[in-house]
Design brief:
Elements (H helix, E strand, L loop, with lengths): L3 H23 L4 E7 L2 E8 L1 E3 L4 E2 L6 E2 L4 H14 L24 H5 L14 H4 L6 H8 L16 H15 L3 H10 L8 E2 L13 E4 L2 E4 L14 E3 L1 H10 L8 H7 L4 E2 L8 E2 L4 E5 L2 E10 L2 E8 L4 E7 L6 H12 L25 E6 L2 E8 L2 E6 L5 E5 L4 E3 L5 E7 L5 E8 L2 E8 L2
Antiparallel strand pairs: 1-2, 1-15, 3-4, 5-9, 6-9, 7-8, 10-11, 11-12, 12-13, 13-14, 14-15, 16-17, 16-23, 17-18, 18-19, 19-20, 20-21, 21-22, 22-23
Helix pairs in contact: 1-10, 2-6, 2-7, 5-6
């Protein structure tokens, strides 16, 4: 006999499947997705290809690089070391790493919450060149530790992968074993997360997904990244099924005590006005979505983008792992939550290019201020229209109406708001379920 709850769960699962299939057809997503509620898995499915060259499909067993979802595992390891009496999160890192510059000012808590002021090495101008070279943890640290702090530790939040590399060194120093081995022994093996680990290119890894990035003609292989570079800030791989085991374990004392879990999920540091009421804790972002408390984190690393979101009161978990670097996993996660909680959402759609008089483009050419340090520049050439964000490559945008344009390489759209003469005065950027306004800058 089918209960009403079972019937509702099947209806929700069917709606989610239709939504994800629609996204797959846009070309902006491929990957694997798991959704569970109250210990019942509603969706556990792969979409698109794990390897385009060999025609291998994504499945629930496909292994993806996690990017910054790694940080919650690093944070858990640190909290375990605190439980063992080997460190105090409010203690100075100079106690354990006496040679770290200005380490007496920096606490473990600062590193965990991105409030240490250490410059973010993945934002350095030489990152693109150096990321291809194997480095030890000490060599990665030497890349950034001689640079001055960007602010007094504890003064504010500023996301920094560098802090989590220092935490990696701290874990290795106190445990007297490599970071990868510590996680394997103390987290992954106890949870039987047998399809997870520190990603390295040398081992033969079954079900490993290849990472892709969009191009003007479809997809291309992502740039090479030596996995010694992201370290404890982003070097793990896993599957949706293993991450579900991780989610379930965080409701128990298997890996962390109740006190440590409380520390991990407490809203600790405000992330700034642009992030609304979001707070960063230990490897997690704490915010609200659809009038519900949520703990979540995303990840992005060459060829991959990922998201894990937990609604603790309802014991809901939404995991989206993609081997397409630009996949809008945050929007997908939010929309799956909307389906689950009966909230409105938009079904992804195929966009059609229309024929437009190129003379219109001249009224759109100009610079538009998207953020304090980000300008969106619109240009025209050979009867085509292009957009370029500060520090990024120029991309062509295509008309679907006289004022609405879209990108083909990423799921983003631009709406030109014009005055009575037809000249654009601002642009609205639609991406990831968010709308950002960029006003024209006078030349």
């Amino acid at each position: 006999m089918v209960t009403s709850n079972q019937s509702n769960n099947q209806s929700v699962a069917d709606e989610m499947t239709a939504y994800l299939q629609a996204y797959l057809e846009t070309g902006f997503f491929m990957g694997s997705v798991l959704v569970a509620r109250a210990d019942e898995v509603l969706l556990n499915q792969g979409y698109g290809m794990a390897n385009l060259e060999h025609g291998i499909a994504n499945t629930p067993q496909t292994k993806f690089r996690l990017g910054s979802i790694t940080k919650q595992f690093t944070a858990a390891a640190v909290l375990q070391l605190q439980e063992q009496g080997l460190l105090q999160v409010n203690g100075s890192i100079s106690t354990h790493l006496p040679h770290y510059p200005q380490g007496e000012q920096i606490t473990v808590h600062h590193l965990l919450t991105h409030t240490a002021g250490i410059p973010n090495y993945t934002s350095f101008p030489d990152y693109a060149q150096n990321k291809r070279t194997a480095m030890t943890v000490d060599e990665v640290i030497n890349w950034f530790n001689q640079r001055p702090l960007e602010f007094t530790p504890g003064d504010r939040y500023s996301y920094s992968n560098s802090g989590y590399v220092v935490l990696t060194k701290l874990i290795e120093t106190l445990s007297v074993q490599p970071y990868a081995d510590y996680l394997q022994q103390h987290i992954l093996e106890p949870l039987e997360m047998n399809s997870s680990g520190y990603d390295r290119p040398e081992p033969i890894l079954s079900h490993r997904a290849s990472g892709y990035t969009p191009s003007s003609t479809g997809y291309q292989n992502a740039e090479f990244l030596d996995m010694s570079i992201p370290s404890g800030a982003g070097a793990l791989y896993s599957t949706i099924e293993d991450l579900y085991k991780w989610d379930q374990a965080l409701y128990s004392d298997i890996i962390l005590s109740e006190s440590s879990r409380h520390s991990m999920f407490s809203p600790t540091v405000g992330m700034g006005e642009e992030d609304g009421n979001a707070y960063y804790s230990y490897g997690w972002v704490i915010d609200r979505l659809y009038e519900r408390d949520r703990v979540a984190h995303g990840g992005r690393i060459d060829g991959f983008t990922t998201s894990i979101a937990r609604f603790l009161d309802e014991r809901v978990i939404i995991i989206v792992l993609s081997n397409l670097e630009t996949a809008p996993v945050a929007r997908i996660s939010n929309d799956l939550a909307a389906i689950l909680f009966s909230k409105p959402y938009e079904l992804p759609k195929q966009r059609q290019v229309i024929v437009l008089d190129p003379a219109i483009y001249e009224a759109y050419v100009g610079d538009y201020q998207l953020a304090p340090d980000v300008v969106l520049t619109v240009t025209t050439e050979a009867q085509r229209l292009f957009a370029q964000l500060t520090g990024q490559k120029q991309v062509e945008i295509f008309p679907e109406s006289a004022t609405e344009f879209f990108l083909k390489i990423v799921d983003a759209q631009l709406t030109f708001v014009v005055n009575e003469t037809g000249k654009a005065v601002r642009i609205i950027l639609h991406q990831g379920g968010l709308d950002q306004v960029a006003n024209r800058i006078a030349r």
